Amino acid sequence: MKEKILLVDDDADIIEFLQYNLEKEGFNVIFARNGVEALSKLDNSIDLILLDIMMPKMDGFDVIKKIRQNDFYKELPVIFLTAKSAEADEIKGLNLGAHDFIQKPISPQKLIARVKSNIRKPSTTELQATSSKEIKAGPIIIDKDKHTVKLNGQLLSLPRKEFSLLYFFVTHPDKVYNRDVLLKEIWGADVYVTERTVDVHVRKVREKLKLHSNMIITLKGVGYKFSVSE
Question: What is the rounded average pLDDT for all residues in the chain?
Answer without folding.
Answer: 87
